[in-house]
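Ticket closed. Logging final result for UPF0102 protein DCY43_00510.
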Amino acid sequence: MQQVQTGRLGEAVAEKFLVGKGYQILEKNWVCRWGELDLIAEKDNMLTFVEVKCRNSQVNGHPSEAITRFKKHSLHRSIERYILTNNVTKPWKVDIVCIRKFGKAIKIDHYDYVQLY
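Final structure:
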């Protein structure tokens, strides 16, 4: 339950952060049989699939370390499904937003144009 709350909080923080950078959020928590796409956004006619990772402590390392080979594969398949299901023809990219909470302070790292493979 704690992980779900942390994840949802991270997604809300990431959404606000991206909107502040000029992104329009199109979908949240899009689910298919291969997994979930946290945020789907658009900016400058570029579709962006955003993976959000949030951590409350540094015990398990940086949030980006949670993006394993299995997670990348799941993301790739989910993105393919979204593109096919929605007949996407515009260019697209993958971003990762990592959120670290230190008490009340929040640190956000935005990785733009991430390669899945």
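The two ends are 31 Å apart (CA to CA). No further action required.
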